[in-house]
Specification:
single chain; 4-stranded parallel β-sheet; 433 residues
């Protein structure tokens, strides 16, 4: 398959048998909003498709359970910081389960402090870092390729709000590796009591769990600079090789055509939208455009997603009913060349969605024409595609319903239409004919 590398804007072939993936995870000081969910769902589809291709995949997704926002939240709640962050870590795990995300390795920052301190010490010893009164900083000027991930000239880059604003920094884009702190949860180190810098956490976890350049790394587009730029600078400074072979960045989620974010106060929590719409509709909504592009959230789009999912499930159920009645049901994984082409094309969600709708529209005609083998193939293909998209399809075919279906069919064959109509009402309510 091919992915668009956002650092070069060129397509890269993903053809190894062993694939490593790193997706930046949440800082667990609150519930996540739907904008946070879009990259997770996108990478989950990538994970599922690679497994369908029989690739060996290692997927790392960190949990940042140490942060100033966590310290502030714990102080308000008057509980220990790690106890506070664990509450939202568990809430996050619940969201992953409810949205049908495949299992990943989810290391916590608090459980990997020694590795982070050793990593920072190596950078300091090799001259890539320097001390200030409030911590240890990475010296961007010592790394000649700074700007390659965000594809920007270093002279045109501006400091981000998450870069510590210390007037003693050598350069405006220098970033903190270790923050000296006296308030909140701190750890002892040779640099003083404190906490690790955000940009160091992810690169250390990649180094620990993958031990090499990661095949695919990414997250939301807002992480491209400075977070991913700074991760890469540290790794490449120490090991003289890029942090990632391919960078994937997922576009913003918009609400009323404005970027959704907690800072703007226009966010919708995932837990709330799942209660209203369910996982299938939320995931289907994400697939309406290429993953790199902005996507606008509104009620009309969600209603459309839910209606389309219901229609697809109804067609799949009808297909199964007639395949059962004609002893042609053979359920197995299957994708034709067209579907594979769409997945291979940088997860071309719009084309994948269009092909599903095209297949389901053909089901009624195939039933009418009694083309059972073709019908079985189409149904298997749609179900397989939905599985890769993480859409949960559960049919209603228990033993009682199957027996009712067979009795209805017998009445139809025997032209006992009065009896058939009574059973037909039951089957129509179950949406299986």
């Amino acid at each position: 398959m091919y992915l668009l590398d956002s650092s070069t804007n060129k397509r890269k072939e993903i053809n190894k048998n062993k694939i490593s993936i790193y997706l930046c995870g949440p800082t667990v000081y609150n519930h996540i909003h739907i904008g946070n969910l879009r990259p997770i769902v996108t990478f989950d589809v990538l994970h599922r498709y690679l497994k369908f291709l029989k690739k060996e995949v290692i997927f790392i997704h960190n949990i940042t359970d140490i942060d100033d926002k966590i310290v502030n939240g714990a102080k308000i709640e008057q509980i220990d910081e790690l106890e506070f962050s664990n509450i939202y870590t568990q809430k996050y795990y619940e969201i992953l389960e409810k949205t049908n995300i495949l299992k990943m390795i989810t290391p916590k920052v608090s459980e990997n402090l020694n590795e982070m301190l050793n990593f920072i010490d190596e950078l300091y010893k090799k001259g890539y870092a320097y001390k200030l009164d409030d911590g240890i900083y990475f010296d961007v000027s010592k790394f000649k390729d700074y700007g390659q991930v965000s594809n920007n000239d270093v002279n045109n880059l501006e400091s981000n709000v998450r870069v510590e604003n210390n007037k003693g920094k050598h350069n405006s884009n220098d970033f903190v590796l270790w923050k000296n702190k006296t308030e909140g949860k701190t750890w002892d180190s040779k640099f003083g009591k404190g906490r690790p810098g955000w940009h160091t956490e992810c690169v250390v976890l990649i180094n620990k769990y993958i031990k090499d350049t990661v095949t695919i790394h990414g997250g939301g587009i807002d992480l491209r600079f400075p977070h991913h730029e700074n991760e890469n600078a540290q790794f490449q400074a120490l090991y003289n090789k890029p942090l990632a072979n391919t960078w994937m960045h997922v576009g913003h989620l918009m609400i009323d055509n404005e970027k959704m974010s907690k800072s703007l106060g226009n966010f919708i929590l995932v837990k709330d939208i799942l209660d209203k719409w369910g996982s299938n509709s939320v995931r289907w909504f994400f697939y309406q455009t290429r993953y790199q592009k902005p996507l606008n959230y509104n009620l009309e789009n969600m209603e459309s997603s839910q209606n389309l999912i219901d229609k697809i499930f109804y067609e799949l159920n009808k297909a199964k009913s007639y395949l059962l009645l004609n002893s042609k049901l053979d359920e197995k994984e299957y994708l034709d060349d067209e579907k594979i082409k769409h997945f291979d094309d940088d997860l071309n969600f719009p084309n994948i969605i269009s092909s599903i709708q095209k297949d389901t529209k053909s089901i009624s005609n195939l039933i009418r024409e009694k083309k059972w083998d073709e019908l079985n193939k189409v149904r298997n293909q749609v179900v397989t595609t939905l599985n890769i998209l993480g859409i949960i399809y559960k049919d209603e075919f228990n033993e009682k319903i199957i027996q009712t279906l067979k009795e209805w069919n017998k009445y139809v064959i025997n032209k006992d239409f009065e009896s058939a109509d009574k059973l037909r009402k039951i089957l129509l309510e179950k949406k299986i004919i």
